[in-house]
Amino acid sequence: MTEASTDFKVSMGALTGLKVVELGQLIAGPFAAKTLADFGADVVKIEPPGAGDPLRQWRLIKDGTSVWWQVQSRNKRSLALDLRQAEAQGIVRKLVAEADVLIENFRPGAMEAWGLGPEVLLALNPGLIMLRISGYGQTGPYKDKPGFGVVAEAMGGLRHLSAEPGRLPVRVGVSIGDTLASLHGVIGILMALHEKQKSGLGQVIDVALYEAVFNCMESLLPEYSAFGAVRGPAGSALPGIAPSNAYLCKDGKCALIAGNGDSIFKRLMHAIGRDDLGADPALADNAGRVRRVEEIDAAIGAWTSQLEVTEVLWVLDQAAVPAGRIYTVEDIAADPHYLARGMLAEVGLSDGSQLRVPGMVPKLSRTPGEHRRNAPSLGQDTDAVLKELGISDQQISEMRNRGIVA
Questions:
Q1: Is the pLDDT of residue 382 over 90?
Q2: Which fold has domain 244-325?
Q3: Per-residue pLDDT tens for 305-356?
Q4: Is 178 noted as a catalytic residue in this protein?
Q5: pLDDT value at residue 4
């Protein structure tokens, strides 16, 4: 804990002036709050005294804290508060009375048990926008089940598709279900803020992790409804769209080639020396190419197998055919385009070292996102936030002695 957050830089971002209270932990809620903070919102993150948000100790640790923390909690202020205690719940209600947005990702019912449900908070502040992210949503027969992103990815339909045919499904290497839910939550907040300009009223945004995943499943449901088709895993291919696949090159690396546009397909066939296929009227549209996708993939694969991946990509760049290679983080860190777009940002840590972190997304021309402050230590802003609420030093000291704040 420090006396005040004197290092907190005032933002001129798109969301400057927006007051956000974050009650979430780990990924889904905090990612949504981080996105708002990057563009100027004043985010007060409430964490339990002692360990704080468990993400502080997830994955690789530097100087006692996860380096992931420096991404997920940048630009936020930390208030260490024990929500199990009535006095702490009262502090949250004071914060909410002056806030624009509250974000939480606890299991449904937890907020209500603390006296912080929407009926209470919206009565205190009718203009409050409350984002609630959970595994299955606030209603329905599954609402009380614990839900993590990995389960949501499976229920939403994604996990069934992420495999080679006949093999066990694999997970995407990041918590994509949580992140998709977060982004849907941010969209909901921005829509609610826009509507509030007309009505003056807030509202509750209910985001279920599995629904956020399901919302990205493209034609999955209508194809089943219309044709009884159950789409299955297809490895690196994109079923029903051809050609679009990964092709092995001479050096053992893969080139990802998307030649599925009609004119692009002709350019691709010319580039690989197969003008016979490019001129074939039966392959002039996607439907025809899908019927002969194995033949087309074999022709492309025969060509890539004779060249190294860099040679393949050079030829296809000249032909204006969308293509790329599979990047590792080492490739990302060395890529000039990432650097030119400001996506390889550097921050200084308390031990004097530099840490690379992802830059700001999306890019706004007049009010871009900015790194105003490193992720806070636990309770770094407790005193400052409480004083803003009119709580005296003596009261803060007494609450600290009783374990309400830290």
A1: yes
A2: formyl-coa transferase, domain 3 (3.30.1540)
A3: 999 999 999 999 999 999 999 999 999 999 999 999 999 999 999 888 999 9
A4: yes
A5: 38
Nearest to 325 by CA among 338, 340, 315, 313: 313
Domain 19-215+340-401 falls in which CATH fold? Rossmann fold (3.40.50)
- What integer best gives the mean pLDDT of the chain? 94
Q: What gap in Å lies between CA 243 and CA 289, rounded to an integer? A: 7
pLDDT band at 169 (very low <50, low <70, confident <90, very high): confident
Higher pLDDT, 167 or 119: 119
Whole-angstrom distance, CA of residue 259 vs CA of residue 266: 8
| β strands within 326-380, DSSP E | 344-348, 354-358
- Residue whose pair of structure tokens reads 């030649």 in the numeric block: 259
pLDDT at 5: 43
Q: What is the pLDDT of residue 63?
A: 85
**Beta-bridge partner residues of 103:** 22, 131
In the chain, the N- to C-terminal Cα span, in Å, equals: 7
Task: Tell me, yes or no, if the two domains 19-215+340-401 and 244-325 fold the same way.
Answer: no
The reported pLDDT for the residue numbered 236 is 87
Q: Structural domain boundaries of the chain?
A: 19-215+340-401, 244-325
| Residue 342 structure tokens | 């400001």
The C-alpha angle 204, 125, 203, rounded to 5 degrees, equals: 15
Secondary structure (H, E, C), 10-75: CCCCCCCCCEEEECCCCCHHHHHHHHHHHCCCEEEEEECCCCCCHHHHCCCEECCEECCHHHHCCC
Can you give the three-state secondary structure of 203-271, one letter per residue? Answer: EEEEEEHHHHHHCCCCCHHHHHHHHCCCCCCCCCCCCCCCCEEEEECCCCCEEEEECCCHHHHHHHHHH
Q: Residue 11: what pLDDT?
A: 67
Question: Cα–Cα–Cα angle for 74, 177, 134, nearest 5°?
Answer: 85
Q: Quote the pLDDT of residue 8.
A: 55
| Residue tagged active-site, from 100, 178, 206, 297 | 178
Which amino acid is it at 85?
A: Q
Contacts of 51 (CB under 8 A, 6+ apart): 57, 378
